[in-house]
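EI: anyone free to look at a 151-residue chain?
SC: sure, send it
EI:
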Amino acid sequence: MQIREDDLTGKKIAEFLQEHLENMHEITPPESVHALDLVALRSSDITFWSAWEGDELLGCGALKELDSRSGEVKSMRTAKAHRNKGVASKILEHIIQEAKRRAYDCLNLETGAMLEFAPARALYIKYGFEYRGPFAEYIDDPNSVFMTKKL
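SC: here you go
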């Protein structure tokens, strides 16, 4: 598996992210969807990576800089055919290492509170994330779970 910084111009990643957004809107009330679209992911404060095996897209993840000492994990997604194969772990490890390289004190994230997000929450707990309240511009929402990891 190769994880590389992605400029978000490829057709495969655009389709993958569109599928991600559609899925989030299927399982989450509209006011609680915090997934970013292609345009938002191109923001200068976000670094985006995709994972590949040859020309097959396995998954993706991003790191948003909140300030000089903290970041946010965004857009974690694994292709259906590659779930439970360690793709998300490798991408999350990559994001954590980059956050450490940037000398962040902590990493934060928002994920869903619904059953469909249980595997994601379990992954984050495995990597040392702990539950916390809303951060940055998020508000308390029964459909959201907020987590943080001290680095």
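EI: The first strand starts at residue 2 and ends at 5.
SC: 👍
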